[in-house]
Structure formats: structure tokens, C-alpha cells
Automatic annotation (TrEMBL):
Protein family membership: Belongs to the MoaD family.
Gene: moaD
Superkingdom: Bacteria
Protein name: Molybdopterin synthase sulfur carrier subunit
Keywords: Nucleotide-binding
Keyword Membrane: no
Family matches, as InterPro entries: Beta-grasp_dom_sf (IPR012675), MOCS2A (IPR044672), Mopterin_synth/thiamin_S_b (IPR016155), ThiS/MoaD-like (IPR003749)
Length: 86
């Protein structure tokens, strides 16, 4: 299983903070963030808008990740909007 987390406005837009994806829903061993995003985007327009927004950030196991980074069973993948502090 891959645990997917959504933060800030993404959590509010989807109405959930966590979602689980079974590894058999994606290609085990060759799965990337891009593969996971495609599976999740198939859930609907809001999902697609969030996942493919130009400024959406992603982390795999709390490390910033890109579309080509590998994901595997047991990983935590988080999607969140850019943040600022001050």
C-alpha cells in the first residue's frame, strides 16, 4: 500500500487528508510519482486539477520528489501547495 496525503487547500478541496493506493493499482517495481498521479487523476476533475497544477509540490517519505522519482509499497507520498513563511 502507498499512503497518499493531501495538505492545506488540497485537503479542503478533496474533503480528505489521506488516501491509500494498493500497489497492484500501479506498476509495482517501476512505479513513479507520475504513475501514481495518473492513477489518482482518474478519480475526477478536482484530483486532476490538484495533481497537475504547475505549482503542486510532492514529497516521497518526506523528501521533495519529482515525477520521475520511484514509489513503492510502504511509501508515504504527500501533495501540497507551495508555502511561504514570514
Amino acid at each position: 500500500m502507498i499512503s497518499v496525503r493531501f495538505f492545506a487547500k488540497y485537503r479542503e478541496q478533496l474533503g480528505i487528508s489521506t488516501f491509500t493506493v494498493a500497489v497492484n493499482e500501479i506498476d509495482p517495481g517501476k512505479s513513479t510519482v507520475a504513475t501514481l498521479k495518473a492513477v489518482l487523476a482518474a478519480k475526477g476533475d478536482v484530483w486532476r486539477e490538484i495533481l497537475y497544477a504547475e505549482n503542486t509540490l510532492c514529497a516521497v517519505n518526506q523528501d521533495l520528489a519529482g515525477d520521475n522519482d520511484v514509489v513503492a509499497s510502504g511509501d508515504e507520498v504527500a501533495f501540497y501547495p507551495p508555502v511561504t513563511g514570514g
